[in-house]
Amino acid sequence: MPTERTEVQVRPGVEGDLEALTALYNHYVRETAITFDTAVFTPEERRPWLLSHPEDGPYRLMVATAPDSQEILGYATSSPFRAKPAYATSVETTVYVAPDAGRRGIGTLLYKALFEALSGEDLHRAYAGIAQPNEASARLHERFGFRYVGTYREVGRKFGRYWDVAWYEKDLM
Questions:
Q1: Quick check: 68 pLDDT over 90?
Q2: Which of 119, 101, 102, 117 is nearest to 53 (CA)?
Q3: Whether the Cβ atoms of residue 64 and residue 75 lie closer than 8 Å to each other
Q4: What is the pLDDT of residue 2?
Q5: Scanning 27, 67, 78, 149, which has its CA 20 to 30 A from the CA of 85?
Q6: Average pLDDT for residues 19-26, to the nearest whole number?
Q7: CA torsion angle 77 83 87 89 (round to 10)
Q8: Cβ–Cβ < 8 Å for 96, 24
Q9: Are 169 and 143 in contact (CB under 8 A)?
Q10: Strand 72-80 to strand 147-158: parallel, antiparallel, or no bridges (unpaired)?
């Protein structure tokens, strides 16, 4: 398996990735409480999201692909934390890995590339909200220096029940 990790390529996301990224995200919409979206998207509905992550600046989209097929194995993003101007030096980060690509270090590769890309930006903190329970995501974030700051109890309702979201933060300076 270590060979697979080194062969995975990570690059900025591009418009040609839109269908595959939408399909990956829709899996999590349909099957999990990891995202609080409750209806699947068409690629056209997801286009504004993709276009809001250019190849430079504080809001990035990094994509992991298989070396031979160029199949999308996962993605990581940094997005605005909140819309008000004083939050401009904070980002919210997230990682999604294809369901059949887990436990191969892809999330780690994606976050490594994302934080390297963000290192020259005027950013102070990164935040991540993790729907509970999700030990794998908590471990990934802690490996990257995120620390737990609190939990919003029963903040989202999906699949007929309420879900907690644990919040983590990371210094970026």
A1: no
A2: 117
A3: yes
A4: 45
A5: 149
A6: 98
A7: 40
A8: yes
A9: no
A10: unpaired
